[in-house]
UniProtKB/TrEMBL annotation:
Keyword Ribonucleoprotein assigned: no
Pfam families: DnaJ
Annotated TM spans: 472-496
UniProt domain J: residue ranges: 28-93
Protein name: J domain-containing protein
Keyword terms of this UniProt record: Membrane, Signal, Transmembrane, Transmembrane helix
Residues of the signal peptide: 1-24
Top-level taxonomy: Eukaryota, Metazoa, Ecdysozoa, Arthropoda, Hexapoda
Region (Disordered): 642-661
PANTHER family: DNAJ HOMOLOG SUBFAMILY C MEMBER 16
Keyword Transmembrane attached: yes
SUPFAM superfamilies for the chain: Chaperone J-domain, Thioredoxin-like
Length: 661
């Protein structure tokens, strides 16, 4: 019992050493240059020079010298730039994940579960590394921003990066089988199609999408991960199909106990290349497919294909020519392309320095039109242009005079073409014209709608993968609350719509009833409300009036209420639809002090007013609370007097305007 703590401490040291030994080998630039993480720029530069001399391919006989030299150079480029040291994920891992799956292991110091995962991490590296999957490690404490960005909630954590998309592995890192199934499930959907007897011909004849066809045969019932990783790497150039049919095996004489991969070009009757082994390695797959990833007559459908078929070469003696037939995306030109394809197969110039291809004029019009010499009339359709790419945008070219017409004898055209190629391959000869061109339009790129849908699906899946069990319930609660609010709002709007429909029906019914009765017509009359002006309603009726609005106030007392209010109501009734007027009344007993102060402020000089409340009864005030002025109307004479002079008829109305209060 006395040695138990010491034994546990020794075991911890062993696990820590094992963890660091495993993590140190996972594509760590510091480990590659053999420097400490806190090394200065001078120490990094010194280590790079020493290792570069040691592993230079011209000075080292080691079989992995070239690969190690490239790793050393990339590690130095990463660590020599302080900004790139912090953006390694965006600059290296994300671009490479377009073709190579990446597994990133997140850990931290003094993490007991990280120590427990170290032996399994070693097994993952040994098993999945040869299949073509890259690995990287991230210290979560030193890279907190990246951890938050990738939704790392627990440590240790394993993250899969595919084409820039993030997938978090939520299980414990103890089972290689579960990790393999996790990677298989996250691969692009139907990347490897299942090919049966009734669709073998349609699969092989689909090369018009500018991709080579490949058939995978293996004794197992499902395609293995190594073939999925290879198909992911070459998915833009090769379409893969998995065959589990004895009839197709007999058709191509494929043994049942061996793995076989067949590659087809335009000739679907016989494969152009094949691999047959008990266990095909990923390196062998890559070597064979890389050498046969283009059709006999490929189409220049993207800038990537142009750069692969017609690489840049500025040196004139080593220039590479690309012989391109210009057609359109129509089946009427299939005979011309097939004839040019047959010539490319039998051409004596089909070497690495001369490549044959075709291009669609209607889809790559900008590129083709830039190859027409200025001031010359050239009809590019069914003509052949010979290209020499000096750099990425600078092209020298020359057109062949004759057209590629299958209706006529092509012997003269082929002789002219061969003579032109033979002449241009000489180091002393140069092409007649040169121009600057833009990149080719990518004919295989997704549309805007497809990109939006894909991004939404990837975002939803990454959000789901980034959630742990503790976050699922709150997320579901928020989602349920939002759905409930939307449903309740829709239900309320539905009830309002029903109420409006009922009102419209009642109006229509009343209108139809009135039409039957010619003596009366009942129209809708808006109500007129008279509000009492007192301290509780003063703000609403006076102080908080909107611009342009006024309040008409009748001054009365308790005794005159019954007589004055009906008359006032009748007088203002015609103005009930005016939205800028409000009507009210005020008892002089309650508002005498306010009324006295209001009148006193309108006088030019300050003096004491003695107001008889009885004389104020019947006065009408027009108040503008926004502009702070008022008008007074008070009747001095009765309307019963006869033959009233014309100049005295309006003398009972008195209007007073004062400065703002």
């Amino acid at each position: 019992m006395r040695w138990a703590p010491q034994l546990w401490l020794c075991q911890s040291y062993v696990l820590i050493y094992l963890l660091w030994s495993v993590l140190g080998e996972l594509d760590n630039p510091y480990t590659i240059l053999r420097v400490h993480r806190k090394a200065s720029q001078q120490e990094i530069r010194k280590a790079y020079k020493q290792l570069a001399k040691e592993w230079h391919p011209d000075k080292s006989d080691h079989p992995d010298a070239e690969r190690r030299f490239v790793d050393i150079k990339q590690a130095y480029e990463l660590l020599s730039d302080p900004d790139r040291r912090k953006r390694q994920y965006d600059k290296i891992i994300v671009p490479k994940s377009e073709k190579i799956p990446y597994l990133i292991f997140f850990y931290t110091d003094w993490c007991f579960q990280c120590l427990q995962s170290a032996p399994y991490c070693r097994k993952i590296v040994d098993y999945l590394g040869p299949l073509g999957i890259n690995f990287a490690t991230v210290h979560s404490g030193r890279e907190p921003n990246l951890s938050r960005r990738l939704s790392i909630h627990t440590l240790p954590c394993l993250v899969l990066v595919l084409d820039g998309n993030i997938y978090v592995y939520k299980e414990t890192i103890t089972s290689i089988t579960k990790i393999i199934e996790f990677i298989r499930a996250k691969m692009p959907y139907k990347m490897v199609a299942k090919v049966k007897e009734n669709d073998i011909d349609s699969f092989l004849s689909g090369w018009e999408d500018n991709r080579v066809r490949s058939l995978i045969f293996e004794p197992k019932q499902s395609v293995r991960l190594r073939y999925l990783v290879t198909a992911y790497y070459f998915r833009h150039r090769v379409a893969f199909g998995y065959v589990n049919s004895q009839e197709i095996r007999d058709m191509y004489q494929v043994p049942n106990d061996m793995d076989t991969v067949l590659l087809f070009n335009e000739n679907t009757s016989y494969p152009m290349a094949f691999i047959r082994m008990k266990d095909i390695s990923t390196t062998t797959l890559h070597d064979v497919i890389s050498s046969n990833q283009y059709l006999t007559l490929p189409r220049l459908s993207s800038q990537e294909i142009l750069e692969a078929l017609c690489p840049c070469e500025w040196n004139k003696p080593r220039k590479k020519l690309c012989v391109v037939l210009v057609t359109e995306a129509s089946h009427s030109y299939d005979p011309h392309r097939q004839s040019f394809r047959s010539y490319a197969q039998s051409s004596p110039y089909g070497t690495e320095r001369v490549r044959f291809a075709y291009i669609y004029h209607d889809k790559q019009a900008e590129f083709v039109n830039s190859l027409i010499p200025e001031g010359k009339l050239v009809e590019p359709l069914l003509k052949i242009v010979i290209l020499w790419r000096k750099d990425t945008s600078h092209i020298k070219y020359e057109w062949v005079d004759a057209k590629w017409e299958v209706e006529t004898d092509l012997n003269e055209t082929t002789q002219l073409l061969e003579s032109k190629i033979s002449t241009l391959l000489k180091s002393s000869e140069a092409l007649a014209y040169e121009t600057f061109v833009k990149d080719l339009f990518d004919e295989h790129a997704k549309g805007t709608f497809s990109k939006i849908i894909t991004k939404i699906m990837n975002f939803a899946e990454s959000c789901y993968d980034g959630m742990n069990k503790d976050q699922i319930l709150p997320a579901l609660s928020v989602l349920g609350t939002m759905i409930f609010i939307l449903a309740l709002g829709y239900f309320m709007s539905y009830l309002v719509r029903l109420e409006e429909e009922n009102i419209q029906k009642q109006k229509a019914k009343a209108k139809s009833g009135n039409n039957n009765n010619d003596t009366t017509k009942i129209d809708y009359q808006p109500e007129l409300h008279l509000h009492e002006l007192r301290s509780e309603t003063y703000n609403a009726l006076v102080r908080l009036l909107k611009p342009g609005c006024r309040t008409i106030v009748l001054v009365l007392d308790m005794q005159s209420r019954q007589q004055l209010i009906p008359s006032f109501h009748k007088a203002v009734w015609p103005y009930r639809k005016n939205k800028t007027l409000m009507f009210s009344y005020m008892y002089i007993e309650r508002g005498l002090n306010w009324y006295k102060e209001l009148l006193q402020m309108s006088l030019p000089e300050e003096r004491e007013l003695n107001i008889n409340p009885r004389n104020c009864v019947g006065t009408v005030l027009s108040l503008n609370g926004h502009r702070k002025y008022f008008c007074v109307f008070h009747v001095k004479h009765t309307e019963k007097k006869k033959k009233e002079p014309k100049d005295l008829r309006n003398s009972g109305k008195k209007t007073v305007r004062v400065e703002p209060l």
